[in-house]
Amino acid sequence: MQRKLTSLLLGLGLLGGALAATGSAQGHGYTDSPVSRQQLCGNGTVRGCGQIQWEPPSVEGLKGFPNRGPADGRICAGGNGRFAELDDPRGGSWPATTLSPGSNHTFVWRITARHATTDFRYYVTRDGWDPTKPLTRADLDPQPFLTVPFGGRLPGATVSHSGVLPQKSGRHLILGVWTIADTGNAFYACSDVRF
């Protein structure tokens, strides 16, 4: 019995080491305010979402956005083909959170596994953006309207921070990017909003 237990622990240790060596972030999360597409799929508000309905915190892709990261048209899924339903604009019919332009908003991330964090950044679509087409970099204002530095600290299970919303009107999309400090990855969350 002792030998089997030792073998099991050794095997788990090797597996853990192999997973750590992949460089994949061990943290996962999504925006809950404003509600993200993956959260809408995960809680059953939106149907026909494929795998993301079971894995809303798993939209992980390369960091460095906007210079690097997911390709245009694949941004909402973090470049992950398993979650391509998030990039489908659904004819512009994703449920949208109503926000007041220029007001203070508390952004909330749900973190299911903590990981050292560089920052959280928020981009918004330009005026005239077409919500019936997949998101591209050209659709976004070039600079984030809010950046929250985290200095490599570990986030809690819920991360909340306040910021002033941009002066926009009509339907828009807010892209939240959670940049991991010690891997090459970030987590992406698209939230459909109406100002």
TrEMBL record:
Spell out the Gene3D superfamilies in the cross-references: chitin-binding protein cbp21
Domain of life where this protein originates? Bacteria
Signal among keywords: yes
InterPro entries registered for this protein in UniProt? Cellulose/chitin-bd_N (IPR004302), GlcNAc_Chitin_IntDeg (IPR051024), Ig_E-set (IPR014756)
Query: Where do the Chitin-binding type-4 domain residues begin and end?
Result: 28-193
Q: Where is the signal peptide?
A: 1-20
What SUPFAM superfamilies is this protein classified in?
A: E set domains (SSF81296)
Query: What are the entry keywords?
Result: Signal
* UniProt-recorded name of the protein: Chitin-binding protein
Species whose genome carries this gene: Streptomyces solincola
